[in-house]
């Protein structure tokens, strides 16, 4: 068996080794594309791949586990090993990663006393149950057992959240109990307070730093931190940010390739590196995360392109070639190669073949749940997607004020099937003045636009989605509610023979032909806001607000012959045809 140790240098079988790593999230790529991505990582001259393990995709419901398909982390790790790559695993309960709730499962929020990332019995009990199952898949992949995994992370940027060392020790202890044998590490921001709060250096756990510039300055901070604690350890940037993530209604963030190469060169002269990201991939489904700025939540977009070394769809960028050149110059003994690329195609027009209002097919998609006052999305369902709230309201042929109290994240009001207004978190709770006849039906469609993935708001009540308090008409809370949880994981049950109602949330079905499956892009310019499905697979959210107006469709999701595209459009916009194009579509922002 090989041996990996952390001494004054990283050592593999007693010989010093510099870790040249790139971040690849198996869960953001099609499994069919894992090999090409890992091949390209090695072609750039790198010897290691790093990946997070998000708890929420592996335990989507408490006690229900899934390690199949794109969730098959063991298959991804074995493939990396077969290609000659080392693997750094980050199975911490929290991952950030611009992922929904930082990887924590939404069902945790059903517990009113839950305090995530704390040394509390309730949270640790849930982590223990998860680790018991997870390590059945990953324990035998460690280098101590003949596998490629050389290190595991205890917690992720904990110094930006808390400083409870006993919590960190409990997580480390659980990992050891279920079979972790390789060296542990923590990763935090490169400043003293974060390193001190988030590390377990006193317990012999390697501390690493995360940053994307000023390499010497940040390594000086880490080196001084080691010295204060009497450690002579190798320096490593566990997340060297080669790009950045993007949010709705904001300009795409990019980074110059030459600048990146210069910084990488500077860092590699004294430290090991993990480029974050090598390939970003896609937030398929409802798994995009959300930033928090003060009291405002800023959901992130479906694309996790990240301006990374490879594009969202796996195309090598100029950064690939610039970084490869740095490797060739600094480490001429390391073999490099030419990258693989994926073919793309424009399939042209997708013709509409059916449409139906959500109000007409609610019972096809969800069970009606009745309660005196509104239930949260976590109480009524799995906590993702949408929730439709409905109640009868007695009126007096006059206007009355209506408001949803503590609603997250985006609320659309309909009175007797007619659209009356939209509110988001920044104006949620403001009153709408609506005219009520004698008998009325009030509908509220609430969208979970993504839970916060970083910072104090992980503990905030706003991470419970839907309507948390109630809906007021006049000056009283309305009682007697029906609600429909809509994770939209069953769109094949939509009955397009039912009624379509103009200006209501609706499903639209399109069809197009494919002779040979290749990567393509759905042009979303004609649409408003919603989510799209290709052959039943949830591609993620689109929004006319930009900065992107496309959804990436990987070739493995297509079929030869007829393909079906279903769009759930919430803004009442209709398009008689949609287009499948060879290139992505963007919105320009100043």
From TrEMBL:
Coiled coil ranges: none
Keyword annotations for this protein? Answer: Glycosidase, Hydrolase
Residue ranges of the Beta-galactosidase galactose-binding domain? 505-563
UniProt-recorded Gene Ontology molecular function terms: beta-galactosidase activity
* A Pfam family per the record: Glyco_hydro_35
The Gene Ontology biological process terms listed for this entry are: carbohydrate metabolic process
The reaction(s) annotated as catalysed by this protein in its Swiss-Prot or TrEMBL entry are:
Hydrolysis of terminal non-reducing beta-D-galactose residues in beta-D-galactosides
Domain Glycoside hydrolase 35 catalytic: residue ranges? 10-329
The active site consists of 157 (proton donor), 239 (nucleophile)
Domain Beta-galactosidase 1-like first all-beta as annotated: residue spans: 374-486
Q: What is its EC number?
A: 3.2.1.23
Which enzyme type, at the first EC level?
Answer: hydrolase
Q: Which InterPro entries match?
A: B-gal_1-like, BetaGal1-like_ABD1, BetaGal_gal-bd, Galactose-bd-like_sf, GH, Gly_Hdrlase_35_cat, Glyco_hydro_35_CS, Glycoside_Hdrlase_35
What does the sequence similarity comment in the record state about its family? Belongs to the glycosyl hydrolase 35 family.
Q: Which PANTHER family match?
A: BETA-GALACTOSIDASE RELATED
What's the protein name? Beta-galactosidase
Q: Which organism is it from?
A: Enterocloster lavalensis
Taxonomy of origin reads:
Bacteria, Bacillati, Bacillota, Clostridia, Lachnospirales
């Amino acid at each position: 068996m090989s041996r990996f140790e952390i001494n004054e240098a990283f050592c593999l079988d007693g010989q010093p080794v510099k870790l040249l790593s790139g971040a690849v999230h198996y869960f953001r790529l099609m499994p069919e594309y894992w090999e090409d991505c890992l091949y390209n990582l090695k072609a750039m001259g790198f010897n290691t791949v790093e990946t997070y393990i998000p708890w929420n995709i592996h335990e989507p419901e408490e006690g229900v586990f899934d390690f199949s398909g794109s969730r098959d982390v063991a298959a991804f790790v074995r493939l990396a090993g077969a290609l000659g790559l080392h693997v750094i695993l980050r199975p911490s309960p929290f991952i950030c990663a611009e992922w929904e709730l930082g990887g924590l499962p939404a069902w945790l929020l059903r517990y009113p006393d839950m305090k995530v990332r704390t040394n509390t019995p309730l949270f640790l009990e849930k982590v223990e149950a998860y680790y018991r199952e997870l390590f059945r898949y990953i324990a035998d992949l460690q280098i101590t057992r003949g596998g490629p995994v050389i290190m595991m992370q205890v917690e992720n940027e904990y110094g930006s959240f808390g400083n409870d060392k006993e919590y960190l020790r409990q997580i480390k202890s659980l990992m050891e109990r279920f079979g972790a044998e390789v060296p542990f590490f923590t990763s935090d921001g490169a400043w003293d307070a974060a390193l001190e709060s988030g590390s377990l250096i006193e317990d012999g756990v390697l501390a690493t730093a995360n940053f994307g510039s000023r390499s010497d300055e940040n390594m000086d901070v880490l080196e001084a931190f080691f010295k204060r604690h009497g450690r002579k350890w190798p320096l490593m940037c566990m997340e060297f940010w080669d790009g950045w993530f993007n949010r709705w209604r904001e300009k795409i963030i990019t980074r110059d390739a030459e600048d990146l190469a210069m910084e990488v060169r500077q860092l590699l002269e004294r430290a090991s590196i993990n480029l974050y990201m090598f390939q970003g991939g896609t937030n398929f489904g409802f798994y995009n995360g959300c930033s928090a700025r003060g009291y405002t939540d800023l959901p992130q977009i479906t694309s996790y392109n990240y301006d990374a070394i490879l594009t969202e769809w796996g195309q090598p960028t100029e950064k690939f070639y610039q970084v490869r050149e740095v490797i060739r110059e600094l480490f001429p003994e390391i073999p490099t190669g030419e990258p693989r690329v994926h073919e793309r195609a424009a399939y042209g027009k997708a013709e509409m073949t059916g449409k139906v209002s959500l109000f007409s097919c609610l019972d096809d998609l969800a069970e009606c749940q009745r309660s005196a006052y509104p239930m949260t999305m976590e109480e009524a369902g799995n906590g993702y997607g949408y929730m439709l709230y409905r109640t009868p309201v007695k009126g007096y042929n006059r206007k009355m004020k209506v408001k949803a109290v503590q609603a997250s994240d985006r609320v659309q009001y309909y009175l007797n099937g007619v659209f009356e207004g939209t509110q988001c978190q920044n104006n949620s709770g403001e009153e709408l003045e609506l005219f009520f006849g004698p008998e009325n039906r009030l509908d509220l469609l609430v969208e979970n636009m993504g839970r916060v993935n970083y910072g104090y708001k992980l503990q905030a009540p706003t991470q419970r989605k839907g309507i948390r308090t109630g809906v007021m008409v006049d000056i009283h809370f309305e009682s007697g509610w029906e609600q429909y949880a809509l994770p939209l994981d069953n769109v094949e049950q939509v009955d397009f023979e039912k009624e379509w109602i103009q200006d209501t949330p609706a499903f639209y079905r399109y069809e197009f032909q494919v002779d040979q499956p290749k990567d393509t892009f759905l042009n979303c310019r004609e649409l408003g806001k919603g989510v799209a499905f290709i052959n039943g697979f949830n591609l993620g959210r689109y929004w006319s607000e930009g900065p992107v107006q496309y959804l990436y469709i990987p070739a493995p999701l297509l079929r030869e012959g007829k393909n079906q595209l279903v769009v759930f459009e919430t803004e009442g916009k209709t398009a008689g045809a949609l287009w499948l194009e060879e290139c992505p579509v963007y919105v320009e922002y100043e």
